[in-house]
Amino acid sequence: ARRLWGMHNLPLLPRTTGDCPTPGTSPLPPQGNLESVLDILCHLVPRTALSSPQQVLPAATKLAAALAADGGSHVQVRLQALTTLYNVLESGEARHAVLLRTLGFARATGSADVLLPVIRASAATWARDLGLDRVRERELLSAAADALEGPSSTPRESAAEVQRLLARILASYEGVAGKELAGGRPVAARVVADFLRSGEAFTFDLLGNPAVASLAAASDTAPLHFLLKTMLVGGVRDFRATLAEYPDLLPSLGIAPEAALAKMQVMALAGLAHVNPVLTFEQIQDALEIRAEEVEPLLVRAIGKKLLEARIDQLAHTVSVSKSAPRAFGDGDWKALQATLRVWQGALERAEQIAEDRKGLLQQGLTAIKA
């Protein structure tokens, strides 16, 4: 078995038993046998700890590298073997190395869909389970996000998980500064660019994140941060002025100016409704710089995106807003939400106590009747 740890690659094995060489040539095992052989190899790795514990990491690393090489053949078999290898290992360091290889292989072969449920269930505890510091956790979360950005049969679910992974990376920069914080700028720029491109995201919760805020301090990312802030706290006029100041910004992100303006108009409408429970069509038309006939379709779109709950009065040309989503959900919003939840919790506890008291009185009454 130890000779196998030195191999740098697995041979490209036949895809089906029908592809196997005829007797007399150098036979390669059919797929069923291949799975068995790889399963045995994977289970041999942790057994090296019995005689030489320090060899587990290099053995696992070499086998994972061999399994992940030349990914065009037997993709599912190799991916299953990598998963088996990860599961049989006990060393957090070895599991981390294998998981990185597995994610890279899934990205290269477009097979990350298989790993989506595992990533969704386990990513939050990788640092604890594998004993990772912040730097290595970020590396692993980034590799998972990269893998899930490939071709997918469930693009919406994969995209949502990518955003959760990147948000988790950004959260790890809370309370850091200097060079370490500067290292978070690429991830922050990626998250901001993804938000600007998205036709479904209209609320951004990370404006106050240190890594996102640090974008304003670098000359190459300052325009991106300025555009984000404009969309979250400014109006349509501010947005047009920003685009005029940085005409190359949207093309560099692959965003059509018309699509960005349409998104800004919806977000500005949500911002307007957040502070005005009753709006006239004329107010909306003036604030968003749109024609009169565009007001109602824009309201319908915002309601359809669940940014507003409102009643449109077509005769009076007004809209009554009962609920609206904030464009940026910051610390103040979280504190307000926590206060509301505490009030609800207190009300539920009081209701529970009243129910218990009435139950006690009822039991006393039944006891008295029986007596």
UniProtKB/TrEMBL annotation:
Database matches in Pfam families: PCI
Any one of the GO CC terms: eukaryotic translation initiation factor 3 complex
Tell me what organism the protein belongs to: Auxenochlorella protothecoides (Green microalga)
What is the recorded name of this protein?
A: PCI domain-containing protein
Q: Which domain of life is it from?
A: Eukaryota
> Which InterPro entries does the record cross-reference, listed alphabetically?
COPS7/eIF3m, PCI_dom, WH_DNA-bd_sf
Q: Which family does the similarity line name?
A: Belongs to the CSN7/EIF3M family. CSN7 subfamily.
Any single biological process term in GO? cytoplasmic translational initiation
Domain PCI: where? 255-344
